[in-house]
Design brief:
Layout: E1 2-3, E2 10-15, E3 21-23, E4 26-36, E5 41-53, E6 65-70, E7 108-113, H1 121-139, E8 147-149, H2 158-167, E9 177-179, E10 184-189, E11 194-199, E12 211-216, H3 218-224, H4 231-236, E13 248-249, H5 253-258, E14 263-264, E15 267-268, E16 281-283, E17 295-300, E18 307-309, E19 314-316, E20 318-323, E21 331-334, E22 341-345, E23 349-357, E24 372-381, H6 396-401, H7 412-429
Protein backbone atom coordinates (compact mmCIF):
# COMPACT_ATOMS: atom_id res chain seq x y z
CA UNK A 1 0.00 0.00 0.00
CA UNK A 2 1.28 3.46 -0.95
CA UNK A 3 0.32 6.20 1.52
CA UNK A 4 0.46 9.51 -0.32
CA UNK A 5 1.43 12.71 1.47
CA UNK A 6 1.63 16.34 0.37
CA UNK A 7 5.37 16.08 -0.34
CA UNK A 8 5.16 12.55 -1.77
CA UNK A 9 3.18 12.37 -5.07
CA UNK A 10 3.29 9.30 -7.26
CA UNK A 11 3.27 8.84 -11.03
CA UNK A 12 1.59 5.72 -12.38
CA UNK A 13 3.05 4.27 -15.57
CA UNK A 14 0.20 2.15 -16.93
CA UNK A 15 0.21 -0.23 -19.88
CA UNK A 16 -2.83 -1.85 -21.42
CA UNK A 17 -0.86 -5.07 -21.78
CA UNK A 18 -0.76 -5.32 -17.96
CA UNK A 19 -4.58 -5.55 -17.70
CA UNK A 20 -6.29 -8.33 -15.79
CA UNK A 21 -9.37 -8.40 -18.04
CA UNK A 22 -10.81 -6.93 -21.22
CA UNK A 23 -8.94 -5.79 -24.31
CA UNK A 24 -6.65 -2.89 -25.18
CA UNK A 25 -9.62 -0.51 -25.61
CA UNK A 26 -11.70 -1.51 -22.59
CA UNK A 27 -9.96 -3.08 -19.62
CA UNK A 28 -9.40 -3.27 -15.86
CA UNK A 29 -5.94 -2.56 -14.46
CA UNK A 30 -5.05 -3.64 -10.91
CA UNK A 31 -2.59 -1.57 -8.89
CA UNK A 32 -0.22 -3.81 -6.98
CA UNK A 33 0.14 -1.16 -4.27
CA UNK A 34 -3.16 0.71 -3.76
CA UNK A 35 -2.98 4.48 -3.15
CA UNK A 36 -4.36 5.91 0.11
CA UNK A 37 -4.03 9.11 2.11
CA UNK A 38 -4.77 10.51 5.59
CA UNK A 39 -8.37 11.21 6.55
CA UNK A 40 -7.84 14.98 6.50
CA UNK A 41 -6.39 14.88 2.96
CA UNK A 42 -7.77 14.13 -0.50
CA UNK A 43 -6.24 12.60 -3.64
CA UNK A 44 -6.16 14.24 -7.05
CA UNK A 45 -5.45 12.21 -10.21
CA UNK A 46 -4.01 14.04 -13.26
CA UNK A 47 -3.60 12.58 -16.75
CA UNK A 48 -0.01 13.46 -17.70
CA UNK A 49 0.71 11.86 -21.07
CA UNK A 50 0.18 8.81 -23.26
CA UNK A 51 1.28 7.07 -26.42
CA UNK A 52 -1.79 6.32 -28.55
CA UNK A 53 -1.63 4.17 -31.72
CA UNK A 54 -3.81 5.23 -34.64
CA UNK A 55 -4.78 1.69 -35.58
CA UNK A 56 -8.58 1.78 -35.37
CA UNK A 57 -10.37 1.79 -38.71
CA UNK A 58 -12.31 4.81 -39.93
CA UNK A 59 -14.86 2.39 -41.41
CA UNK A 60 -15.50 -0.26 -38.77
CA UNK A 61 -18.24 -2.77 -38.03
CA UNK A 62 -20.52 0.03 -36.75
CA UNK A 63 -20.17 2.07 -39.94
CA UNK A 64 -19.79 -0.32 -42.87
CA UNK A 65 -23.39 -0.93 -43.95
CA UNK A 66 -25.99 0.98 -45.93
CA UNK A 67 -29.46 0.36 -47.36
CA UNK A 68 -30.69 1.35 -50.83
CA UNK A 69 -34.45 1.41 -51.54
CA UNK A 70 -36.33 1.30 -54.84
CA UNK A 71 -40.02 1.82 -55.76
CA UNK A 72 -40.93 2.93 -52.25
CA UNK A 73 -44.44 4.37 -51.91
CA UNK A 74 -43.03 7.27 -49.87
CA UNK A 75 -40.92 8.57 -52.77
CA UNK A 76 -42.07 11.95 -54.03
CA UNK A 77 -43.15 11.36 -57.61
CA UNK A 78 -43.44 7.59 -57.40
CA UNK A 79 -46.24 7.97 -54.83
CA UNK A 80 -48.45 9.48 -57.57
CA UNK A 81 -48.22 6.28 -59.62
CA UNK A 82 -47.76 3.63 -56.91
CA UNK A 83 -51.37 2.45 -56.99
CA UNK A 84 -51.70 1.92 -60.75
CA UNK A 85 -52.77 -1.58 -61.80
CA UNK A 86 -50.07 -3.93 -63.01
CA UNK A 87 -49.35 -5.42 -66.39
CA UNK A 88 -47.97 -8.93 -66.73
CA UNK A 89 -47.30 -9.65 -63.05
CA UNK A 90 -48.30 -13.30 -62.77
CA UNK A 91 -46.15 -15.14 -60.22
CA UNK A 92 -44.32 -12.07 -58.92
CA UNK A 93 -44.05 -11.70 -55.13
CA UNK A 94 -43.53 -8.75 -52.81
CA UNK A 95 -41.05 -8.46 -49.93
CA UNK A 96 -43.26 -10.66 -47.73
CA UNK A 97 -43.66 -13.42 -50.30
CA UNK A 98 -47.23 -12.35 -51.14
CA UNK A 99 -48.52 -11.92 -54.68
CA UNK A 100 -48.04 -8.35 -55.95
CA UNK A 101 -51.12 -6.16 -56.29
CA UNK A 102 -49.80 -2.81 -57.55
CA UNK A 103 -46.60 -0.96 -58.32
CA UNK A 104 -45.82 -0.37 -54.65
CA UNK A 105 -45.60 -4.15 -54.26
CA UNK A 106 -42.33 -3.97 -56.17
CA UNK A 107 -40.66 -1.97 -53.41
CA UNK A 108 -37.19 -3.36 -52.73
CA UNK A 109 -34.49 -2.74 -50.14
CA UNK A 110 -30.95 -3.86 -50.87
CA UNK A 111 -28.61 -4.14 -47.88
CA UNK A 112 -24.93 -3.67 -48.59
CA UNK A 113 -21.88 -4.36 -46.42
CA UNK A 114 -18.47 -2.97 -47.35
CA UNK A 115 -15.14 -4.15 -46.00
CA UNK A 116 -13.75 -2.61 -42.83
CA UNK A 117 -10.61 -0.53 -43.15
CA UNK A 118 -9.11 2.85 -43.94
CA UNK A 119 -10.05 4.45 -47.25
CA UNK A 120 -9.45 7.44 -49.43
CA UNK A 121 -12.68 8.84 -50.85
CA UNK A 122 -11.86 7.27 -54.24
CA UNK A 123 -11.23 3.86 -52.68
CA UNK A 124 -14.41 4.14 -50.61
CA UNK A 125 -16.58 5.00 -53.62
CA UNK A 126 -15.05 2.17 -55.66
CA UNK A 127 -15.76 -0.28 -52.84
CA UNK A 128 -19.35 0.92 -52.52
CA UNK A 129 -19.93 0.65 -56.27
CA UNK A 130 -18.59 -2.90 -56.43
CA UNK A 131 -20.55 -4.15 -53.42
CA UNK A 132 -23.78 -2.30 -54.34
CA UNK A 133 -23.85 -3.57 -57.92
CA UNK A 134 -23.13 -7.11 -56.73
CA UNK A 135 -25.88 -6.92 -54.09
CA UNK A 136 -28.44 -5.71 -56.64
CA UNK A 137 -27.51 -8.51 -59.01
CA UNK A 138 -27.83 -11.08 -56.22
CA UNK A 139 -31.25 -9.70 -55.20
CA UNK A 140 -32.68 -10.07 -58.71
CA UNK A 141 -34.18 -13.56 -58.45
CA UNK A 142 -37.06 -15.41 -60.08
CA UNK A 143 -40.42 -13.89 -59.11
CA UNK A 144 -38.46 -11.01 -57.52
CA UNK A 145 -37.05 -9.17 -60.53
CA UNK A 146 -36.46 -5.45 -60.31
CA UNK A 147 -38.94 -3.28 -62.20
CA UNK A 148 -38.76 0.38 -63.08
CA UNK A 149 -42.09 1.81 -64.17
CA UNK A 150 -43.08 4.37 -66.74
CA UNK A 151 -45.37 7.14 -65.64
CA UNK A 152 -48.19 5.99 -67.88
CA UNK A 153 -49.69 2.78 -69.21
CA UNK A 154 -50.73 4.52 -72.42
CA UNK A 155 -48.12 4.80 -75.20
CA UNK A 156 -50.00 7.82 -76.56
CA UNK A 157 -49.29 9.88 -73.44
CA UNK A 158 -46.50 12.45 -73.58
CA UNK A 159 -44.94 11.19 -70.32
CA UNK A 160 -44.73 7.68 -71.81
CA UNK A 161 -42.65 9.07 -74.65
CA UNK A 162 -40.50 11.13 -72.28
CA UNK A 163 -39.69 8.04 -70.23
CA UNK A 164 -38.98 6.05 -73.39
CA UNK A 165 -36.61 8.79 -74.54
CA UNK A 166 -34.84 8.89 -71.15
CA UNK A 167 -34.38 5.13 -71.34
CA UNK A 168 -31.81 5.94 -74.07
CA UNK A 169 -31.94 2.40 -75.42
CA UNK A 170 -33.18 1.05 -78.72
CA UNK A 171 -35.83 -1.02 -76.95
CA UNK A 172 -39.42 -0.68 -78.12
CA UNK A 173 -41.63 -0.47 -75.01
CA UNK A 174 -44.72 -2.66 -75.08
CA UNK A 175 -45.30 -2.60 -71.31
CA UNK A 176 -45.39 0.18 -68.72
CA UNK A 177 -42.20 -1.06 -67.08
CA UNK A 178 -38.66 -2.21 -67.79
CA UNK A 179 -37.06 -5.16 -66.06
CA UNK A 180 -33.47 -4.21 -65.37
CA UNK A 181 -31.03 -4.69 -62.51
CA UNK A 182 -30.03 -1.34 -60.94
CA UNK A 183 -26.36 -0.56 -61.49
CA UNK A 184 -24.34 2.38 -60.20
CA UNK A 185 -21.26 4.49 -60.80
CA UNK A 186 -19.75 7.46 -59.00
CA UNK A 187 -17.73 10.63 -59.36
CA UNK A 188 -15.78 12.78 -56.92
CA UNK A 189 -15.40 16.53 -57.41
CA UNK A 190 -12.11 17.77 -56.01
CA UNK A 191 -13.25 21.34 -56.54
CA UNK A 192 -16.30 20.83 -54.31
CA UNK A 193 -14.82 18.04 -52.16
CA UNK A 194 -18.13 16.23 -52.65
CA UNK A 195 -19.23 12.95 -54.22
CA UNK A 196 -22.06 11.85 -56.53
CA UNK A 197 -23.43 8.31 -56.79
CA UNK A 198 -25.77 7.64 -59.73
CA UNK A 199 -27.63 4.89 -61.60
CA UNK A 200 -26.29 3.87 -65.01
CA UNK A 201 -28.95 1.31 -66.02
CA UNK A 202 -31.77 2.38 -68.35
CA UNK A 203 -34.38 2.18 -65.59
CA UNK A 204 -32.38 4.57 -63.43
CA UNK A 205 -32.45 7.18 -66.20
CA UNK A 206 -36.23 7.38 -66.14
CA UNK A 207 -38.22 9.63 -63.82
CA UNK A 208 -39.49 6.78 -61.62
CA UNK A 209 -36.07 5.17 -61.32
CA UNK A 210 -35.81 6.78 -57.91
CA UNK A 211 -33.78 5.40 -55.04
CA UNK A 212 -32.46 6.55 -51.69
CA UNK A 213 -29.65 5.60 -49.34
CA UNK A 214 -29.36 5.32 -45.57
CA UNK A 215 -26.11 4.52 -43.77
CA UNK A 216 -25.51 2.67 -40.54
CA UNK A 217 -23.38 4.83 -38.31
CA UNK A 218 -22.41 8.46 -38.56
CA UNK A 219 -18.84 7.96 -39.80
CA UNK A 220 -19.85 6.46 -43.13
CA UNK A 221 -22.41 9.20 -43.74
CA UNK A 222 -19.84 11.87 -42.88
CA UNK A 223 -17.22 10.21 -45.07
CA UNK A 224 -19.66 10.43 -47.99
CA UNK A 225 -20.78 13.94 -47.12
CA UNK A 226 -24.39 12.81 -46.69
CA UNK A 227 -26.82 14.40 -44.28
CA UNK A 228 -26.48 13.08 -40.74
CA UNK A 229 -28.46 13.44 -37.57
CA UNK A 230 -27.04 15.00 -34.44
CA UNK A 231 -26.68 12.80 -31.39
CA UNK A 232 -29.46 14.76 -29.71
CA UNK A 233 -31.83 14.18 -32.62
CA UNK A 234 -31.18 10.46 -32.51
CA UNK A 235 -31.65 10.31 -28.75
CA UNK A 236 -34.90 12.28 -28.98
CA UNK A 237 -36.52 9.52 -31.02
CA UNK A 238 -34.89 6.72 -29.05
CA UNK A 239 -32.62 5.50 -31.84
CA UNK A 240 -29.03 4.57 -30.91
CA UNK A 241 -26.59 6.96 -32.54
CA UNK A 242 -24.70 4.15 -34.26
CA UNK A 243 -27.69 2.54 -36.00
CA UNK A 244 -29.03 4.78 -38.74
CA UNK A 245 -28.43 8.14 -40.32
CA UNK A 246 -30.91 10.31 -42.15
CA UNK A 247 -32.09 9.25 -45.61
CA UNK A 248 -30.75 10.92 -48.76
CA UNK A 249 -33.03 10.71 -51.82
CA UNK A 250 -31.95 10.69 -55.46
CA UNK A 251 -32.74 13.51 -57.89
CA UNK A 252 -33.55 13.54 -61.61
CA UNK A 253 -33.25 16.28 -64.17
CA UNK A 254 -36.94 16.30 -65.22
CA UNK A 255 -38.22 17.16 -61.78
CA UNK A 256 -35.52 19.76 -61.12
CA UNK A 257 -35.83 21.40 -64.50
CA UNK A 258 -39.60 21.63 -64.06
CA UNK A 259 -38.93 23.56 -60.85
CA UNK A 260 -36.42 25.83 -62.61
CA UNK A 261 -33.42 24.30 -60.82
CA UNK A 262 -30.13 23.58 -62.54
CA UNK A 263 -28.01 22.65 -59.49
CA UNK A 264 -28.31 20.37 -56.49
CA UNK A 265 -25.85 20.69 -53.60
CA UNK A 266 -23.54 22.64 -55.97
CA UNK A 267 -23.52 19.85 -58.58
CA UNK A 268 -24.99 20.69 -62.00
CA UNK A 269 -28.13 18.71 -62.87
CA UNK A 270 -27.13 16.64 -65.89
CA UNK A 271 -29.48 16.00 -68.82
CA UNK A 272 -29.23 13.64 -71.83
CA UNK A 273 -27.49 16.47 -73.65
CA UNK A 274 -24.59 16.16 -71.17
CA UNK A 275 -23.91 12.51 -71.95
CA UNK A 276 -24.85 9.25 -70.28
CA UNK A 277 -24.42 10.26 -66.61
CA UNK A 278 -27.85 11.79 -66.01
CA UNK A 279 -29.37 8.83 -64.14
CA UNK A 280 -30.98 9.32 -60.74
CA UNK A 281 -28.20 10.68 -58.50
CA UNK A 282 -27.47 11.15 -54.82
CA UNK A 283 -25.10 14.04 -54.21
CA UNK A 284 -23.27 14.82 -51.00
CA UNK A 285 -24.91 17.72 -49.20
CA UNK A 286 -21.76 18.21 -47.14
CA UNK A 287 -18.09 18.01 -47.95
CA UNK A 288 -16.39 14.65 -47.71
CA UNK A 289 -14.99 14.06 -44.22
CA UNK A 290 -12.92 10.90 -44.23
CA UNK A 291 -11.73 11.30 -40.65
CA UNK A 292 -14.85 12.39 -38.77
CA UNK A 293 -14.68 11.99 -34.97
CA UNK A 294 -10.99 11.20 -35.30
CA UNK A 295 -10.14 11.80 -31.64
CA UNK A 296 -9.72 9.32 -28.81
CA UNK A 297 -11.55 9.87 -25.52
CA UNK A 298 -9.81 8.26 -22.54
CA UNK A 299 -12.34 7.44 -19.84
CA UNK A 300 -11.61 6.15 -16.33
CA UNK A 301 -14.97 4.72 -15.43
CA UNK A 302 -14.33 4.17 -11.71
CA UNK A 303 -13.05 7.69 -11.03
CA UNK A 304 -15.45 10.45 -9.93
CA UNK A 305 -16.97 12.74 -12.56
CA UNK A 306 -14.69 15.59 -13.52
CA UNK A 307 -16.38 17.22 -16.52
CA UNK A 308 -19.60 17.80 -18.44
CA UNK A 309 -20.07 15.99 -21.74
CA UNK A 310 -22.49 17.39 -24.32
CA UNK A 311 -22.93 13.98 -25.96
CA UNK A 312 -24.37 12.38 -22.83
CA UNK A 313 -25.82 15.63 -21.54
CA UNK A 314 -24.47 15.09 -18.04
CA UNK A 315 -21.31 14.69 -16.01
CA UNK A 316 -18.55 12.44 -17.27
CA UNK A 317 -15.18 11.03 -16.30
CA UNK A 318 -13.11 11.83 -19.39
CA UNK A 319 -9.45 12.09 -18.43
CA UNK A 320 -8.14 13.10 -21.88
CA UNK A 321 -9.23 13.89 -25.43
CA UNK A 322 -6.42 12.93 -27.78
CA UNK A 323 -6.39 14.41 -31.29
CA UNK A 324 -4.63 12.10 -33.74
CA UNK A 325 -2.30 14.17 -35.88
CA UNK A 326 -0.38 11.22 -37.32
CA UNK A 327 -1.64 9.10 -40.15
CA UNK A 328 -3.19 5.66 -39.88
CA UNK A 329 -0.89 3.10 -38.29
CA UNK A 330 1.32 5.68 -36.54
CA UNK A 331 1.83 6.40 -32.84
CA UNK A 332 0.68 9.70 -31.35
CA UNK A 333 2.42 11.10 -28.26
CA UNK A 334 0.05 13.24 -26.22
CA UNK A 335 1.31 15.49 -23.42
CA UNK A 336 -1.27 18.24 -22.80
CA UNK A 337 -0.27 21.71 -21.66
CA UNK A 338 -3.39 21.83 -19.50
CA UNK A 339 -3.95 18.27 -18.28
CA UNK A 340 -7.28 17.06 -16.95
CA UNK A 341 -7.64 16.09 -13.30
CA UNK A 342 -10.18 14.30 -11.15
CA UNK A 343 -10.62 14.79 -7.39
CA UNK A 344 -10.80 11.30 -5.94
CA UNK A 345 -11.28 12.26 -2.30
CA UNK A 346 -10.23 9.98 0.53
CA UNK A 347 -11.16 6.68 -1.11
CA UNK A 348 -8.30 4.34 -1.81
CA UNK A 349 -7.42 3.50 -5.42
CA UNK A 350 -6.67 -0.15 -6.08
CA UNK A 351 -7.67 -0.44 -9.76
CA UNK A 352 -8.58 1.57 -12.84
CA UNK A 353 -11.34 0.84 -15.35
CA UNK A 354 -10.07 2.33 -18.61
CA UNK A 355 -12.06 2.70 -21.82
CA UNK A 356 -11.24 4.29 -25.18
CA UNK A 357 -14.13 5.69 -27.21
CA UNK A 358 -14.71 7.92 -30.19
CA UNK A 359 -16.56 11.24 -29.96
CA UNK A 360 -19.90 9.43 -30.25
CA UNK A 361 -19.15 7.38 -27.14
CA UNK A 362 -18.56 4.05 -28.86
CA UNK A 363 -15.63 1.83 -27.96
CA UNK A 364 -12.75 1.96 -30.40
CA UNK A 365 -11.09 -1.18 -31.69
CA UNK A 366 -7.31 -0.81 -31.77
CA UNK A 367 -7.11 -4.13 -33.62
CA UNK A 368 -4.84 -5.79 -31.10
CA UNK A 369 -2.34 -2.94 -30.63
CA UNK A 370 -1.44 -1.99 -27.04
CA UNK A 371 -0.95 1.51 -25.60
CA UNK A 372 0.27 3.19 -22.41
CA UNK A 373 -0.32 6.28 -20.30
CA UNK A 374 1.01 8.15 -17.27
CA UNK A 375 -1.13 9.47 -14.45
CA UNK A 376 0.03 11.50 -11.44
CA UNK A 377 -1.57 11.06 -8.01
CA UNK A 378 -1.14 13.95 -5.54
CA UNK A 379 -2.48 14.71 -2.09
CA UNK A 380 -3.87 17.98 -0.74
CA UNK A 381 -5.09 19.00 2.68
CA UNK A 382 -8.85 19.20 2.96
CA UNK A 383 -10.23 22.74 2.84
CA UNK A 384 -11.59 24.22 6.08
CA UNK A 385 -14.58 26.56 5.61
CA UNK A 386 -12.56 29.44 7.09
CA UNK A 387 -9.50 28.79 4.92
CA UNK A 388 -8.88 30.85 1.78
CA UNK A 389 -8.91 29.19 -1.64
CA UNK A 390 -5.10 29.62 -1.77
CA UNK A 391 -4.69 27.12 1.04
CA UNK A 392 -3.35 24.43 -1.30
CA UNK A 393 -0.95 26.73 -3.16
CA UNK A 394 2.78 26.07 -2.70
CA UNK A 395 4.00 27.65 0.53
CA UNK A 396 0.48 28.31 1.77
CA UNK A 397 0.93 26.06 4.80
CA UNK A 398 4.05 27.96 5.90
CA UNK A 399 2.20 31.24 5.55
CA UNK A 400 -0.69 29.90 7.59
CA UNK A 401 1.68 29.03 10.44
CA UNK A 402 3.41 32.43 10.45
CA UNK A 403 2.66 34.81 13.41
CA UNK A 404 -0.45 36.82 12.87
CA UNK A 405 -0.52 40.56 13.61
CA UNK A 406 -2.11 41.42 16.97
CA UNK A 407 -4.75 44.14 17.20
CA UNK A 408 -5.61 46.03 20.44
CA UNK A 409 -7.93 48.88 21.24
CA UNK A 410 -5.77 51.86 22.47
CA UNK A 411 -6.91 55.13 24.12
CA UNK A 412 -5.81 57.97 21.83
CA UNK A 413 -4.98 60.37 24.67
CA UNK A 414 -2.80 57.88 26.55
CA UNK A 415 -0.97 57.04 23.32
CA UNK A 416 -0.09 60.70 22.73
CA UNK A 417 1.32 61.04 26.32
CA UNK A 418 3.46 57.94 25.80
CA UNK A 419 4.90 59.29 22.58
CA UNK A 420 5.63 62.68 24.21
CA UNK A 421 7.55 61.05 27.09
CA UNK A 422 9.60 59.00 24.67
CA UNK A 423 10.45 62.16 22.78
CA UNK A 424 11.50 63.94 25.98
CA UNK A 425 13.82 61.09 26.95
CA UNK A 426 15.46 61.21 23.57
CA UNK A 427 15.98 65.02 23.83
CA UNK A 428 17.61 64.79 27.29
CA UNK A 429 19.90 61.97 26.14
CA UNK A 430 21.31 64.41 23.63
CA UNK A 431 22.13 67.05 26.36
CA UNK A 432 18.82 68.87 26.66
CA UNK A 433 17.51 70.20 30.03
Amino acid sequence: MVRLTIDKPYTLHARSIDRISGNASDYKLNLRDPFTCRDDHHIKATFVSCTMPSTFYQIDSKNNQFDVRFNDASFTGFNLFAGLPLQDSTGDLDNNGIAVVNRASYARTVKVTISRGNYSIEDLMAEMKTKLNAACTLANTANREFRTFLRSANPADAVWQEDADDDASADVHTNDYVEVIPQFDWEYSRKLNKMRLYRTDKGGKMTLGQWDIQCSGQKLAMALGLSHNTAREMAAVGVPVSEKTSVEASVHYRRHNAAGLTEHYDFPILTPADGAKYGHSVMGKNCVNMFANDSVYVRCLNLPSNSYETLAGNQSNIMAVIPLYSGAGADNFHSPDHPTSAIIGKMGISNLDVKLTDAMGYTLDLNGVEWEFQMRFEVYLDHHPAMPLTHDMPGAHQRDSAPKPQHHAVNVGMERMRMQRASDRGWRSMGGK
